[in-house]
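Why do we bother with holo predictions? Because pocket geometry can differ from the apo form. Keep that in mind while you read this record for zinc ion.
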Amino acid sequence: MTLSDDILSHSAWPSSPGVIHGFTTKATLAGGDGLDQILGLPRLRGRFHHAGRLKQVHGCEVRVEDGGVVEPRTGDALVSDTPGILLTIATADCLPVLLCAPRERPVVAAIHCGWRGLRAQIIGKTLQDLSRLFAADARDVQACFGPAIESRCYEIGPEIETPFGARSVVKADGRIFLDLAMEAQCQLQAGGVAPRNITQATWCTKCDPERFYSYRRDGPGTGRMINFIGVTPG
Ligand SMILES: [Zn+2]
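The structure, written out:
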């Protein structure tokens, strides 16, 4: 990942020209989640006229964003192929997953992946909607992950462990840890996304208080990072 203008992004991801993505840090937007300021960021200004957002509820509802709805709806994944519309997902430890299906007019998605959303199969549901609504084949989908809490910092109780695959649950010294990124990777692959089309992130939100907000570290009052993707017009 590269850091520029206090925004993290994956260089050379995705392969589609005209698709812009990024993950904000504490320094990107002054105070709070700053979503209202996001369209003013240098790399987005003049290219996007609407930032879609959701009232995130750790569920598995997928919403199509075309700029027509102003009030945030409940849901945890946004999909769109409308140029000039930015999709945003707010996180502080949960894993942001961005998708892009390259084609003449690319279709993109932003997914909020905590343990509840992953347990509810939000990734598979988003892939199904990309196929059903936009005729996007999962074999063409490119995925990338943003900063999230890593498994060794993410201890869970035994009541949460059951629905997750053995690869996603790590046990050490009688404690149980969940690997959100591994679970997301497994679900992407189960949905037909090729392993070579999945780009991982390397940062832990809890371990880097300079750069990231962390719910586990700072509690519910902490700020949120804004993770975004969109298709530019023209
Ligand atoms: Zn950590």
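The chain has a mean pLDDT of 94.
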